[in-house]
From TrEMBL:
Top-level taxon in the UniProt lineage: Eukaryota
Protein name stated in the entry: Peptidase M20 dimerisation domain-containing protein
TM helices/strands, residue ranges: none
GO terms for biological process, alphabetical: proteolysis
GO cellular component: a single term: cytosol
Gene Ontology molecular function: metallodipeptidase activity
Length: 137
C-alpha cells in the first residue's frame, strides 16, 4: 500500500481513513493530518506506521474511546477477523493461527485504547477534538 488520500477502506465506497475536512460518525471517517502522513512516510514496517498515523489522529481521552474502537472494528472487518465488544467497551479481536501455529495454544496481547490527556495550562490542544500531530525527530 502507499499513502494517498484514502488510507484505509472498510468496504467499497465506505472510507474510514481519508484526508478531508469532514468527520462523520455514522460511517467512520477520520481526518489524518498531512503532518502525520509525512512523519511516517518511508518508515518500515509500513503497515504498522500507517495504523500509527491513523490512531494518532483519533482523539480518545478516557471514557471517549468509541471512535478508536470503531477504527479497530473496521480493521478487523477488512481482514475478516472476528471481534467482540462488551457493554462497557472492552474489545477482543480474534486472529487464528497460521502455518505451524494453527494448532498452537492461544496468545493474548492486551492494551488500552484511551490516552493520557495531560497538558500545560497554556496549551490550547483539545484532547476531545484535536489529533496528535506526529513529528519525526
Amino acid at each position: 500500500w502507499s499513502f494517498s488520500r484514502l488510507l484505509f477502506s472498510a468496504a467499497p465506497n465506505r472510507p474510514i481513513m481519508a484526508l478531508s475536512s469532514t468527520t462523520t460518525t455514522k460511517h467512520l471517517t477520520t481526518v489524518v493530518p498531512p503532518e502525520n502522513i509525512q512523519a511516517v512516510q518511508g518508515l518500515e514496517p509500513a503497515a504498522l506506521w500507517k495504523h500509527f498515523a491513523a490512531l494518532s489522529s483519533i482523539p480518545r481521552p478516557s471514557k471517549q474511546e468509541q471512535a478508536v474502537l470503531e477504527y479497530i472494528q473496521s480493521v478487523a472487518d477488512q481482514h475478516g477477523l472476528e471481534w467482540k465488544q462488551d457493554e462497557v467497551g472492552n474489545m477482543v479481536v480474534f486472529r487464528p493461527g497460521t502455518g505451524a501455529g494453527v494448532n498452537a495454544d492461544p496468545i493474548i496481547l492486551q492494551g488500552h485504547v484511551d490516552m493520557v490527556t495531560e497538558k500545560n495550562a497554556a496549551t490550547t490542544h483539545d484532547f476531545t477534538k484535536d489529533p496528535i500531530l506526529l513529528e519525526l525527530v
